[in-house]
Amino acid sequence: MPADILAKKMSQAVTGEKAWRHLEAISEATAANGGHRADGSPGYDASTQYLTRTLTAAGYKVKRQEFSFLDYEIFSEKASVTAPNPRTLTPIIARFSISTPEGGLTAPVVVPSGKSTGCTANDYAGQDVKGKIVLVDVNDCFITQKQITASEMGAVAVLMNVNAPNPQLNLRYRMVPPEDARIPIATLNRGEAEQLKSDIAAGPVTVNVDLRGRNKMTKTYNLLADTPTGRADNTVVMGAHIDSVDTTPGMNDNAAASAMLLETAVQMAPYWKHVKNRVRFAWWAAEEKGISGSQYYVDQLNEADRSGTALYLNLEMIGSPNFLRQVYNGQTADGPGPAGSDRISGLIGGYFADRGLPTAGLVLDGRSDHSPFIAAGIPAGGVNAGSDAVKTPEQAKVFGGTVGEMLDPCYHQACDTLANVNRTIFEQNGRAMAWAVGRFAVDTSDVNGK
């Protein structure tokens, strides 16, 4: 069967309605087992058991790739204004943060004298922050650099305003690398941070922060399922992470993509005899914990395995409610991705263009499971409907939606339920990726020359 024919058949066979049944099953498994799918949790196991049963029924042999990764156990994430007007704050400690003493530490809180993001010493020019807690804004540099700078200036802790459009939204960040953690650090939602800034402008403010956790090792596993046909030395890998953070049921992030990947695998089974390049379907663990699952997978590849991996296709947050129809554009932050990545982008983008659906390019950044493949020199591409970026007026003219809101207002929040998944973009992204894997299952020659 020619590549274009299998691509067409796959895009017709995979539908949002069929994949939605899998998403409902993952939702039920998550809800009945603690309400999230963090690695090592009952929700993770229940969801992967559903994947395994469904794949086995379709004829696949499912492999669990077990590994351990550096995790962070949280004991306390509390804060309060102690003077002049006492009130409770709701911080979220950064993963791998240094801990305060039990009971916390109490100190004056100040904002940088220069740029509010607090990335460099110049942001504190002429200011004494020794023994104080600094309140900084998100952006300009990673959170790790903010606390390094604050530590070097003598601060005892950092609070960071996530500055999201929703004043009540807060997110958990992490220290990268963990060994660069210097002082306790946590995030505040915009509403609390702005009130705190207003109080500081009016006079001295004292805050107590009780932020405690410790590093630990967590055991988990990836799920892998291969087509029994096709060249093993030219394997097409298609993946999505199945884990979630522990504050959400994670339906858009990333159960929707996992469900669509499952339906794609099921619909490919009748076409195994036409598969010329082995397809490996992968459900990654610990994406939310430093992209650890896909990194482990890539780390286990020997040279023959790496050269025998034709390409990687990634599905990430494919049903965002305030979506952009984003296609990874073959570029990294430092320049072109591995040879062939731009061709993957062009083909997926062309699928949408042929149907009159506009797309936006998205850089192959370090925020999802394509990252380890890119670092290993393996071409990669895929789709992503968006997370915490804020929709611009220009984007709304093309894609609709709400200006000034995050592409997924429920990103890492309790509201990321089934109701948060936009079924239109969910199906569009799913059909596009089913088309892509059908095409590459037969022909990757224009990507890697094989």
TrEMBL record:
Under which name does UniProt file this protein? Aminopeptidase
Q: Which UniProt keywords apply?
A: Aminopeptidase, Hydrolase, Protease
Q: Which SUPFAM superfamilies match?
A: PA domain, Zn-dependent exopeptidases
InterPro entries named in the record: M28_fam (IPR045175), PA_dom_sf (IPR046450), PA_domain (IPR003137), Peptidase_M28 (IPR007484)
Q: Domain Peptidase M28, which positions? A: 222-434
Q: Where is the signal peptide?
A: none
Drop me one GO molecular function for this one: metalloexopeptidase activity
A Gene Ontology biological process noted in the UniProt record is:
proteolysis
Limits of the PA domain:
106-196
- Organism of origin is Streptomyces corchorusii (Streptomyces chibaensis)
Q: Name one Pfam family in it.
A: PA
